[in-house]
């Protein structure tokens, strides 16, 4: 047995070294003899003593409370699997990658990789370290990382909170695996603030549709954006859209029926005339590609880059991106025209009506129309 005494407090635990009582040298605190087995066992006991003194000195240096039980727990824990923060991220991301295509999307993996990169930069620039042990994480680390993202990375409040939500999920993995005893996120509040969702007005949408653009590249990008404005599809969904997602209903109505990549929830959308025109325009493309894709969708990064050029051609100063098309569908194309919010929610594939309500803020045009009824 090993006994630790601090300020009169004693704790004992097994060393897992077993000998006959007569073989123990009480004065030298070691096993009698010179054989190989004896030497190996004495080395184990000596290492335990060294670890106890090391943990004691480490607690002194860091100003942590010291007791016999604390030293014992540190020693026992050190024998378990121990991870650093970036090693934990590597472990978690590896698990997510193995689930990609089943219940995890590649975009989810990228979100965790983004936070991993930010933590790496934070450790290097602010702590002059390449990594940090999990047992070193505390409330101060969380608050300082929050501040770093706001000041150095120049992220807005909601972007910081979303990154912190990913970090908290990784902390939960550590706690579930008994690699971390206390959640450093205790007493840290995470609350997203309501933001004004941008969208194109009916006038801006009309300008975008009618303008003659130089070159096929910008024309293709514009057409895909307009298609999403009239269907509400996100980039991940329009990029995989194929003829299997189209279904003809009664009275010749064509429906888009697709499970959203992000949430796996079902979107059911009637194909409006403008969206149908765009599909017909690219019908030869749909027949010619082996994956049966309906539209020539390029990478999201390039789409958004070229959309800036399209916006400049139209004189639109708003930040035009693929997600703005989804907002435009929700606000200008549907809710602004009096479509019931429950119907819009089903078309957008939202699991919760509160998500759709974010888009349902009354526009100035809607106020004008409604108030005319009183004039």
Notes on the protein architecture:
By secondary structure, the protein is mainly α. The chain folds into three domains: 2-78, no CATH class; 85-176; 202-372, hpI Integrase, Chain A, CATH 1.10.443.10. The protein contains 16 helices and seven strands. The protein has helices at 36-62, 68-78, 85-98, 106-126, 139-151, 157-176, 202-210, 216-229, 235-238, 273-281, 283-288, 300-314, 322-334, 341-348, 353-357, 364-372, and strands at 2-6, 9-13, 24-25, 30-31, 246-248, 254-259, 266-270. The strands form three sheets. The protein has a three-stranded antiparallel β-sheet with strand order 5-6-7. Strands 1-2 form a two-stranded antiparallel sheet. It has a two-stranded antiparallel sheet with strand order 3-4. Helix 5 runs antiparallel to helix 6.
């Amino acid at each position: 047995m090993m006994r630790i005494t601090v300020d009169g407090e004693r704790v004992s635990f097994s060393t897992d070294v077993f000998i006959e009582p007569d073989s123990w040298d009480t004065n030298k605190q070691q096993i009698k003899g010179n054989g190989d087995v004896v030497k190996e066992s004495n080395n184990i006991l000596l290492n335990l003593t060294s670890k106890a003194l090391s943990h004691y000195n480490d607690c002194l240096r860091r100003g942590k409370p010291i007791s016999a039980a604390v030293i014992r727990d540190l020693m026992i824990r050190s024998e378990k699997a121990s991870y650093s923060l970036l090693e934990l991220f590597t472990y978690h991301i590896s698990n997510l990658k193995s689930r990609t295509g089943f219940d995890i999307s590649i975009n989810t993996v990228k979100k965790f990789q983004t936070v991993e990169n930010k933590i790496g930069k934070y450790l290097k620039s602010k702590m002059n370290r390449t990594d940090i042990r999990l047992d070193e994480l505390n409330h101060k680390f969380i608050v300082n990382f929050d501040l770093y993202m706001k000041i150095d990375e120049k992220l807005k409040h909601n972007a910081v909170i979303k990154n912190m939500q990913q970090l908290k999920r990784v902390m939960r993995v550590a706690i579930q695996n008994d690699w971390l005893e206390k959640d450093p996120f205790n007493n840290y509040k995470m609350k997203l603030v309501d933001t004004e969702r941008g969208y194109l007005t009916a006038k801006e949408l009309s300008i975008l549709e009618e303008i003659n653009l130089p070159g096929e590249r910008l024309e293709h990008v514009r057409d895909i954006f307009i298609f999403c404005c009239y269907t509400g599809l996100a980039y991940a969904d329009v990029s995989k859209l194929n003829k299997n997602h189209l279904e003809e209903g009664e009275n010749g109505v064509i429906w888009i029926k697709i499970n959203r990549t992000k949430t796996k929830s079902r979107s059911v959308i009637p194909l409006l005339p403008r969206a149908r025109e765009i599909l017909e325009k690219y019908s030869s493309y749909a027949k010619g590609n082996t994956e049966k894709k309906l539209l020539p969708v390029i990478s999201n990064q390039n789409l958004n880059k070229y959309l800036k050029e399209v916006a400049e051609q139209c004189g639109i100063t708003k930040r035009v991106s693929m997600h703005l098309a989804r907002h435009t569908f929700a606000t200008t194309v549907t809710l602004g025209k009096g479509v019931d919010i429950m119907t819009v929610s089903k078309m957008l594939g939202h699991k919760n009506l509160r998500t759709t309500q974010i888009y349902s803020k009354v526009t100035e045009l809607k106020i004008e129309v409604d108030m005319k009824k009183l004039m």
